[in-house]
Amino acid sequence: MSLDHSMDRVMSRRTEVEARLSESASLAPDELAGLSRELSELRPVCGQIELVRRLEADRAAAAQMIDEADGDAEIMEMARAEIEEVDSRLPDEMKALQLLLLPRDKDDSRNAILEVRAGTGGDEAALFASDLFGMYQRFAARHGWRFEVMEVSETGIGGYKEATANIAGSDVFARLKFESGVHRVQRVPETEAGGRIHTSAATVAVLPEAEDVDIDVQESDLRIDVFRASGPGGQSVNTTDSAVRITHIPTGIVVSQQDEKSQHKNRAKAMKILRARLYDAERARLQAERAASRKGQVGSGDRSERIRTYNFPQGRVTDHRINLTLYKLDKVIAGEALDEVVEALVAEDQAQRLAEGGE
After folding, report:
1. Three-class secondary structure of residue 113 per DSSP
2. What pLDDT, on a 0 to 100 scale, did the predictor assign at position 358?
3. Are 27 and 20 in contact (CB under 8 A)?
């Protein structure tokens, strides 16, 4: 599809959406919300199209001035200056437009379920999982996102065997979707008397939050067990069967939730996680089909892929997919410099998609 045709299609769609919204009284609430969201996404694209077309028109007008100048040096100089100014701006504005016209991942605007699990490395891996979970919590706070801790399984020494959170806000999944994979840490544990560097790992999964309409979960496909929540002792131990374990029989996916004292709330949280995992599994299946033609894609979604190393002795963070190294480990862990990594990953993905014709 030519760029001009893509621009015409987008401008035409904006006109259609605006016309539909002018009849808002006759629209169902869901349709009204969907059209309003689509219009907000179309506006910046249309604004960029109008800017590019205005620059192209200015250049054509200046070229015509030269043709009709009849040897008038002053007019010709003014027209050439106009062309030079347009030519200095147009390539960058055209590149920005091409990026805006790239097909948007339909899940980019969704909230996300974050799951962090300790991998190889024992207690040190659990401590690293806790560090990563905290990093994403601070990163979310910097972006004004809501970070709701849903489930944490602690080791007792400050580490996390696994932790789950629901992150809600603007374009959460778009910013975090490339974080899925194995994160490796190299550092000297506090308990290591000899000062030897240990290597351990944690796995991160970022799942787009699924809506009820996305995934049809049949009650007959679920096995729901309730049990007494475990805790560190004292008043924290539940005295009722409030913990919930849901097994999705067709896929074997199991979700447990016990953070809430209410069985109803634990079940609701567990269902949210289950829906996200089922939706992510279907998303991964579709990605695998497309990946055959995109071997080098940044966001493969492969949970077993080692994507990043955090080297504490050198203060270094390296993302292996794009060969990016930052000597800002403390700021990355603090959630401050993580944006630099995220933006580089997004830019690389966009560059690959542009090179492949916007797939």
Report:
1. strand
2. 53
3. yes
Q: Which two tokens stand for residue 350?
A: 């966009």
pTM over 0.90: no
Answer with the residue of higher pLDDT: 327 or 257.
327
Query: Which structure tokens are listed for 56?
Result: 């192209």
> What three-state secondary structure class fits 201?
strand
71 to 62, 66, 67, 81: CA distances (angstroms): 14, 8, 9, 16
What's the alpha-carbon Rg for the chain, to the nearest Å?
Answer: 26
pLDDT at 302 over 70: no
Instruction: Note the pLDDT of residue 126.
Output: 93
Closest CA to 310 of 293, 334, 285: 334
- pLDDT beyond 50 at 293: no
Report the alpha-carbon distance of residue 272 to residue 166 in Å, rounded: 9
Rounded average pLDDT over 206-220: 76
Q: How far, in Å, CA of 261 to CA of 234, rounded?
A: 15
- Spacing of C-alpha 17 from chain mean position: 27
How far are the Cα atoms of 102, 104, 175, 227 from residue 110, in angstroms, in the given order? 18, 12, 10, 32
Write the pLDDT tens digit of every residue in 230-239. 654 334 445 5
Q: Are strands 306-311 and 181-187 parallel, antiparallel or unpaired?
A: parallel
Phi-psi domain of 231 (left: phi exceeds 0; alpha: psi -120 through 50; beta: other):
beta
**How far does the chain reach from its first CA to its final CA, in angstroms?**
12
Residues in CB range of 216: below 8 A, 6 or more apart: none
